[in-house]
Amino acid sequence: MKLIEFENVTVQRGQRKALDGVTFSVEAGEHVAILGPNGSGKSTLIHAISRECYPRFAPPQSRLRIWGREVWNLFELRSLLGVVTNELVQACTKPYSALETVLSGFFGSIGVWPYHAVTAEMHERAAAALEFFDIAHLAGRLMTEMSSGEVRRAVFARALVHDPKALVLDEPTNSLDARAQREVRDAMRKLAAGNVSIVLVTHHLPDIIPEIRRVITLKEGRVFADGNVEAILTEERLSALFGIPVRVTRAGGIHHMW
Question: Rounded to an integer, what distance in angstroms lies between the CA atom of residue 207 and that of residue 122?
Fold first, then answer.
């Protein structure tokens, strides 16, 4: 079964088409990067996947399916598809411990509240998620007292705690220093080595870890190109995508552009 299917999806934002006839699909278990400049429609694409906005046209003219279904209960969808955005990272940077933050993933909240019934199994799964991202030693530390890289990994753990089938990661290294970027990419590689599909949305080439073998590029709300990493991440294609001459190098399986 396909994880995501877009068929002629158009999303209107005011007078502008943020997505314009977008068609692509992602297989279950596949790791894919969605690459594009600012304003290309990446954020709208995430909002469409998470059901924060809907296609302009109804079936059969346009279809958007997640695991073969067009209609979802949002709580059910969120248990299967974790979405980590910069807005979520900022919302989670509150004076709650890392453990509380991860536990809150079970309830769709930020932090654990008195009316939340936290079970022993939830505690075990939260501890395992922190261990997976190598931050078990930070379980009792407040999110406001952690480094930016540690915060991102804790939010990844929050998204992973209910065992989703896929994670959508929006600009995961945005505004991080070099050390934190490496920590987050290492965490992404651990995810990719497991059974979780990764859909990475970014404009930053080094975010495309070696485990991601397919890249879909967006430009002005449309699919600009779709193919394997070697075919898409070329100087010619990226210059056309970003509208400026660029140079591309590759080291350790990671692409860089300037």
Answer: 31
